[in-house]
Design a protein that fits this description.
Blueprint lengths: L1 E2 L8 E8 L3 E8 L9 H9 L5 H5 L17 E2 L20 E2 L7 H18 L8 H24 L8 H16 L4 H11 L11 H9 L13
Helix pairs in contact: 3-4
Amino acid sequence: MLQPLRAPDFHKGCYAIQIENNALHVTLHGANGTQLPHNDDDFLSFAKSLRGPVADTIASLTPTSAVRRYARTVNRRIAYHRLARWPEGLIALGDSVCTFNPAYGQGMTVAALEARLLEQMLGNRRAGTPLHGQAFQKRLARATASSWLMATTPDRAWEQSRLSWHVKAGNWFMNRLIDTVPHDPQLYTAFSGLFHMTAGPLTLADPRLLSRVLIGPRPGGSPRTTTA
């Protein structure tokens, strides 16, 4: 269940997914000064204020832990790849290079992709040859570029007084995509791959999918249930 935040109108959202041991992991999101809950009662009250059915889903469930709040939502990316010189024998990866707003659930996956990139570059070098740190930083920057845009574009939309055209365009497209996904199983499958980072954003460049997003949900259409 996904109810994303959407500037400037929807300051509250949620993400719920079934995980191991038959548990439901529920995350509530708030933006633009929204106060988040500290305890079980406030958690349920917050859930009831959402547009979706998450409150009805969790009302009969038993919490397995206390409510935990996390307020560090800043996106930060350090452009090590732009340095003219790089210290020999040094690499930087993970949070030391790039951190994301955790609401988008990208951080650990991006770190894993960075580790895989390091493994590949170590495996491809000649025996006895040191890893070229500067080349690694440049490839790492390319590997994190799409995730960075996916996190920062919707976050920048809250700065209503100074929106650039590309932020407006990016958010219009993402909002259109999210509105259309519940009505289109193929588009949902593509969006799921993008959301879980098993596919890149170019997946949506397929003309057949792109046209569906641009057209949007069909008037009078009802959401369909599908799995991917």
